[in-house]
Write a structure and sequence with these properties.
This protein is 35% helix and 20% strand. It is an alpha/beta fold. It folds into three domains: 111 residues, Spore Coat Polysaccharide Biosynthesis Protein SpsA, Chain A (Alpha-Beta Complex); 99 residues, no CATH class; 52 residues, no CATH class. It starts with 14 loop residues before the first strand and ends in an 8-residue tail after the last helix.
Length: 304
């Protein structure tokens, strides 16, 4: 496991794209990665974190602009998969076991600590970029964007309310006030790596536990809410650029999009959007995604 306090120096850009992924999302990741290569500056790399058993599938992407890491390279040796299940165990704190949703958040936080780049663009495999971007897109004036939709979390979003409660508890804050509360959850997120490190130190100071133990014991937690609450409460958002714009046109529904609906939906992407996300949980076929993309974007964009 790399040393989070001393990330290896290199000459790369100040920005990196990070994607935890796995074998079932290989085709989705392929399209995401191609869009990163096309639309990001040439000195920005894409870091994929995959299950060790999937390494051979993803090594094809490795090169000057793509680094593929196995989960075992990112997590402590005490975190291991539980055979024949989708659960993982932290052998130093085996109860509760780590569900995939929680583990993915831990992986994101863990890998960020090892990266020398400061601006971290987190993109899941079901996202595709479709417009050119620069570091200024994600860090205006050098300050990473923090998505915050004021009053975006109400009683109709009980999971989000639990995420706020967990964040306040881990950060040693009083319980959150009554809703509405800010929403920090978006399909495209940007972190400042230095802020992440300070946040993790705060969690360890408050809980008296290694941060992986503290986060892993939570049954309901959102890494985006944890980061957002920390940035707001402890840095008064001074290190970040607050914005209600996610930069991503998002389809969260679990119903698959048909060919015409997908093309129509993509055509409604707004001027600020640089990416779109069609949730993998929707089951929208890859061919439908690609055909809709070509119809909505490729025919009206000039060649590189």
């Amino acid at each position: 496991m790399a040393d989070p306090d001393n990330p290896a120096p290199n000459s790369r850009a100040a920005m990196v794209v990070v994607t935890p992924t796995y074998a079932p999302d290989l085709e989705l990741f392929t399209d995401l990665h191609q869009s990163v290569l096309r639309w990001f500056p040439n000195d920005v790399r894409h870091v994929a974190v995959v299950n060790d058993r999937d390494m051979d599938l993803f090594r094809v992407f490795e090169g000057p602009r793509c680094t593929v890491l196995g989960v075992s390279e990112v997590l402590p040796r005490s975190v291991v998969p539980l055979p024949r299940t989708k659960l993982w165990l932290n052998l130093r704190r085996p109860v509760p076991p780590l569900r995939g949703w929680i583990l993915q958040q831990i992986i994101k936080l863990a890998v960020v600590q090892t990266l020398p780049e400061r601006v971290i663009v987190a993109a899941d495999s079901d996202l595709v970029f479709f417009r050119p971007v620069t570091v200024e897109t994600f860090a205006p004036a050098g300050r990473a964007r923090l998505y915050r939709l004021d009053d975006g979390v109400g009683e109709s979003l009980p999971r989000h309310l639990r995420w706020h409660s967990a964040a306040h508890r881990l950060l040693g804050l009083p319980p959150p006030p009554s809703p509405p509360l800010p929403d920090y959850v978006s399909s495209l997120n940007t972190w400042d790596g230095d802020v992440v490190r300070r946040m993790i130190r705060r969690v360890e100071e408050v809980t008296g536990l290694p941060w992986i133990h503290a986060v892993g014991k939570e049954l309901h937690i959102s890494e985006w809410t944890l980061y957002g609450v920390y940035a707001d409460q402890f840095e008064q958002a001074g290190s970040v650029t607050l914005t209600p714009e996610s930069l991503c046109h998002s389809y969260w529904d679990t119903a698959p999009l048909g060919a015409d609906d997908a093309t129509s939906w993509l055509s409604t992407a707004g001027p600020p959007d640089v990416a779109y996300m069609i949730s993998a949980k929707s089951g929208t076929p890859q061919e439908t995604r690609r055909n809709a993309h070509a119809a909505a974007f490729d025919r009206r964009q000039p060649a590189e």
